[in-house]
Amino acid sequence: MRIKNFVLGISLITVLNISCSKGPQQINYGEDECEFCKMMVMDKRYGAELVTDKAKIYFFDSIECLVGYLDNKKLNKNNYSSVWVGNYANPGNLIDASKAIYLKNDELRSPMGLNALAVESKEQFDSIFNQYGGKQLKLEDLFELVREM
Description:
single chain, alpha+beta, four-stranded antiparallel β-sheet, three-stranded antiparallel β-sheet
């Protein structure tokens, strides 16, 4: 009986830790809805997430929807735990938005038309930039571009 209670207790603690995680959660492409534009999150190259301090997760179909949501709600780093963006070079994988390298190029069409993408490394950026060109951006630069849309 003690072992059963012990296993049950460990299982409960594990479930609580997972459900209260402040890291990203896998996006269910084709099922999860964008918190900002209410469209379905479809493209694995552009999905994004916002994780609140209470571990609530908001999904977005593009970087511009994430940035628009942060800007419209007047959210800053004190209002959320983490922000994640899709890695264009490794679709379906999320990377820390504050560490990502951004590229804007109108040939690489994003879901809502800003045509900005994110990658995790300089090597990934250089590979895409050498093929398509464009302009390197920081996360902060995207706020002004979204306001101009």
